[in-house]
């Protein structure tokens, strides 16, 4: 059952309570391997479910537009100072509602409509808010995209520099949503300095790994850092912007009043809890285990004939091109879900297929590491992937059902935060 127990909700709205209980069971029984998902602690769950959701707090601590902020102000300051200490930055803003408006706030702070910026192509691992034609960032500004090398699947920094020198962008973005390799922050910073551009490091996927010392940090290289607070950081669904002292005022004004009204105080409290947890020595062990699991799973998948973009991973994320498996990404993802393995279909670099049914799948090891799985379990996970992909090609529902049962049996031995079996 869900923990904390939904006793009041079950009385007031049993239909909704039942759906939440079902979701808790689903999360418990499946290998949750969507690279952008994780499990929050019971403490984070409790913080986000408090009376803080009742309070409006437009403005910043000490400069609010509504009264009654005696306890909200220190909560937000606690989250902000914990972020600054954890990441070693001059300034942090913990108010953005999610990663997309956080990124948009950076555009508002530093660019004018029509200005040129440089970012990774969406189909090569970038993000919608890095200049996709369907995003406000692509409609209001002028994106120029760099790509990964066709042969290696890695970013060619010489190519990035050539584009930057030719286009003279006002901003350069590094980071994205499907990058399995270490981001070279110093190289991006050198290029940004050469052309006089602001460097934005989007670390949404790897923030927890950076906090835990398992990935190099952009601090000291990037002018501004954006991140979500869930994913590898294991906080609630929110976002943060961090910057040098020079850019603090511009960032704060872009968030409020530029884009948002009152912050979500219950989320801010959950972020504060998660940042406190990430500052503990045990979190460094967690981050290291996430990467170790990613590398072990990548090796096991390669042994089973899967084609991994860039040949492997340096972090939590693995991107697989299924072209030579005879199945597209969407049916593969749906089959794996039926087999108890949750992930998403995803484009791969130079993908000839459309994004709604691309050639690849994207998976990550952050959530299964939170459950306690280690390198020793990764060969079995790879075996289940192989069996499920083979089953969808053969339309073999029985195998998918069998794998789902085996997955649930394994996970019964690994507790889930927010769930109890009795």
From TrEMBL:
Record's keyword terms, sorted: Amino-acid biosynthesis, Cytoplasm, One-carbon metabolism, Pyridoxal phosphate, Transferase
N6-(pyridoxal phosphate)lysine modifications at: 231
Domain Serine hydroxymethyltransferase-like: 10-384
Site residues, Plays an important role in substrate specificity: 230
UniProt cross-references to InterPro entries, sorted A to Z: PyrdxlP-dep_Trfase, PyrdxlP-dep_Trfase_major, PyrdxlP-dep_Trfase_small, Ser_HO-MeTrfase, Ser_HO-MeTrfase-like, Ser_HO-MeTrfase_PLP_BS, SHMT-like_dom
Subcellular location: Cytoplasm
Primary location class: cytoplasm
Function of the protein: Catalyzes the reversible interconversion of serine and glycine with tetrahydrofolate (THF) serving as the one-carbon carrier. This reaction serves as the major source of one-carbon groups required for the biosynthesis of purines, thymidylate, methionine, and other important biomolecules. Also exhibits THF-independent aldolase activity toward beta-hydroxyamino acids, producing glycine and aldehydes, via a retro-aldol mechanism.
HAMAP family, sorted: SHMT (MF_00051)
Protein name: Serine hydroxymethyltransferase
Origin species: Luedemannella helvata
Lineage, highest ranks first: Bacteria, Bacillati, Actinomycetota, Actinomycetes, Micromonosporales
Designated gene of the protein: glyA
């Amino acid at each position: 059952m869900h923990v904390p127990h939904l006793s009041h909700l079950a009385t007031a709205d049993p239909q909704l309570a039942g759906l939440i209980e079902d979701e808790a069971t689903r999360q418990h029984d499946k290998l949750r391997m969507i690279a952008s998902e994780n499990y929050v602690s019971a403490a984070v769950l409790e913080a986000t479910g408090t009376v803080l959701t009742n309070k409006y707090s437009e403005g910043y601590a000490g400069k609010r537009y509504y009264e009654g902020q005696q306890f909200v102000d220190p909560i937000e300051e606690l989250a902000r100072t914990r972020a600054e200490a954890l990441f070693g930055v001059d300034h942090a803003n913990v108010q953005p509602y999610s990663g997309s408006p956080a990124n948009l706030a950076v555009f508002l702070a530093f660019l004018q409509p029509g200005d040129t910026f440089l970012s990774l192509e969406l189909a090569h691992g970038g993000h919608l808010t890095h200049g996709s034609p369907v995003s406000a960032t692509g409609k209001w500004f002028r994106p120029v995209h760099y790509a990964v090398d066709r042969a290696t699947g890695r970013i060619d920094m010489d190519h990035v520099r050539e584009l930057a020198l030719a286009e003279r962008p006002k901003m350069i973005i590094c980071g994205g949503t499907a990058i399995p390799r270490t981001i070279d922050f110093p190289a991006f910073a050198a290029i940004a300095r050469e052309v006089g551009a602001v460097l934005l490091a989007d670390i949404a996927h790897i923030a927890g790994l950076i906090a835990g010392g398992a990935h190099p940090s952009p601090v000291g290289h990037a002018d501004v850092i954006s991140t979500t607070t869930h994913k590898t950081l294991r906080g609630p669904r929110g976002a943060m912007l961090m910057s040098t002292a020079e850019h603090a005022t511009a960032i704060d004004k872009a968030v409020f009043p530029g884009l948002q009204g009152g912050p979500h105080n219950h989320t801010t409290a959950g972020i504060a809890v998660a940042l406190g947890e990430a500052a503990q020595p045990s979190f460094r062990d967690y981050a290291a285990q996430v990467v170790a699991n990613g590398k072990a799973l990548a090796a096991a998948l390669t042994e089973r004939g899967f084609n991994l973009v860039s040949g492997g991973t340096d972090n939590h994320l693995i991107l697989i091109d299924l072209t030579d498996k005879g199945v597209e990404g969407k049916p593969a993802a749906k089959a794996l879900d039926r087999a108890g393995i949750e992930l998403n279909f995803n484009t791969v670099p130079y993908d000839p297929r459309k994004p709604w049914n691309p050639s690849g799948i994207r998976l990550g090891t952050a959530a299964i590491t939170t459950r306690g799985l280690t390198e020793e379990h990764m060969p079995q996970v790879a075996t289940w992937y192989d069996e499920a992909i083979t089953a969808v090609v053969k339309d073999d529902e029985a195998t998918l059902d069998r794998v789902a049962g085996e997955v649930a049996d394994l996970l019964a031995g690994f507790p889930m935060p927010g769930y109890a079996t009795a």
